[in-house]
Design goal:
With about 375 residues, the protein is an alpha+beta fold. Helices cover about 45% and strands about 10% of the residues. This is Aminoglycoside phosphotransferase domain-containing protein.
């Protein structure tokens, strides 16, 4: 909670008082719904002069505040330092990616960062619009497969341009021998949640608990030491904002938001998480080809050291994808009990095939039926 001398940033009145005290002209502050971790507001500027040049007339921006607990559950402590990492990543990563994205004229970009109040853990960001890809998927005018391809190509750039990028909030390059080992411990801990709790899902849906424990020990444990590149950390359709292009109504601008779980890790987890959620959308919302287009585009632009490294990476993608499918639908509703059982069954079958080294069974898994040719080839 705010002190007596500071506005409370967990409500609209408090943020408005904060903005007024900072001479930031505005006409409206609206608390947005849908998120669980933070207090997120859309702020509309006024025609009056403002101390912030990005607040032009009739423009909206987003303010995002991290309290030391979950917005949805104030009794659950959640380190507010997570916002420092989002600010850090959005300060350095877009510039690293820019030269690559300009060459291919990508319509995907990381949300723009405008300002950050570290003391209050309040981040001001570009307003990427109100429609996230998870909801926009059913829009009949959108080319969902093309969106998937654009996202896959963009994600390769994130991963390949940040191999030497530290997440240290204090050290500069060359100052610290542990420079590239610095990580967002909050993001690492959160990311292991599905692995650590997979056994509970397997118990509930009648699968081998020892298999779940082995997956956690063998693959979940690696999340603490994976150190290939900067990962978004929560890359899924719910964190992709879709806005129609003003000049071409058949084109869209895609804004990637919610970077607070960014961490150094393996690129396979970003790909695996998006693949899992794309699989669910294709399965339950209309089979629009998001999954295959995303994976094929990613792998078309991605280079690996050798074939062995590529195959190992593909195995990590499938493991993360399968863990996600076997766990999260048991907590977030996608289907009825029978439909959820089928999802857990698919995840368990894929995990069993990976750990058993059974490539034939893995390629025949229903989970991978629409995965595209390039990933399937790597699993051969």
């Amino acid at each position: 909670m705010a002190s007596l001398s500071q506005p409370d940033l967990t409500n609209e009145v408090g943020l408005s008082k904060y903005l007024t005290a900072k001479s930031i002209s505005h006409t409206n502050v609206t608390l947005l719904t849908g998120g669980t971790a933070n207090y997120v507001y859309r702020v509309t500027s006024s025609s009056s002069p403002s101390s912030e040049p990005f607040l032009s007339q009739k423009k909206t921006v987003i303010y995002k505040h991290a309290a030391p607990y979950l917005h949805s559950n104030p009794s659950f402590a959640f380190d507010s330092k997570r916002m420092d990492y989002e600010n850090h990543v959005l300060t350095i990563v877009p510039e690293l990616m820019r030269p690559y994205l300009e060459r291919v004229q990508s319509n995907v970009h990381a949300v723009k960062r405008y300002s950050y109040d570290e003391e209050r853990r309040l981040l001001c960001l570009e307003d990427g619009g109100e429609m996230e890809l998870k909801k926009a998927y059913v829009n009949l005018t959108l080319d969902v497969a093309e969106i998937g391809a654009q996202l896959g190509s963009w994600l390769v750039v994130l991963h390949t341009s940040t191999k030497g990028t530290s997440l240290s909030l204090t050290a500069s390059a060359g100052e610290d021998e542990e420079y590239l080992k610095a990580n967002n411990s909050i993001g690492v801990a959160i990311y292991r949640h599905s692995y650590a709790n997979l056994a509970a899902a397997f118990t509930e849906y009648g699968h081998d608990v020892e298999l779940a424990k082995r997956v956690n020990e063998e693959f979940g444990s690696r999340l603490a030491t994976d150190n290939e590149c900067v990962c978004h950390g929560d890359f899924w359709p719910g964190n992709v904002l879709v806005k129609c292009n003003d000049e071409r109504r058949d084109a869209v601008n895609l804004t990637i938001v919610d970077w607070e779980m960014s961490r150094r890790g393996t690129s396979a987890t970003d790909v695996g998480q998006f693949a899992a959620e794309a699989f669910l959308l294709d399965r339950f919302r209309g089979v629009k080809g998001l999954l295959g287009a995303f994976l094929d585009a990613y792998l078309s632009s991605r280079d690996f050291e050798n074939e062995e490294a590529a195959k190992e990476w593909a195995k990590r993608v499938v493991v993360h994808w399968a863990v996600h499918i076997a766990f999260w639908p048991t907590r977030v509703e996608w289907a009825d009990r029978a439909g959820t059982q089928s999802l857990v069954d698919m995840g368990a079958m894929a995990l069993k095939a990976v750990l058993g080294g059974d490539g034939v069974q893995l390629r025949d898994c229903e989970l991978l039926r629409r995965a595209g040719k390039k990933l399937t080839r790597l699993l051969a």
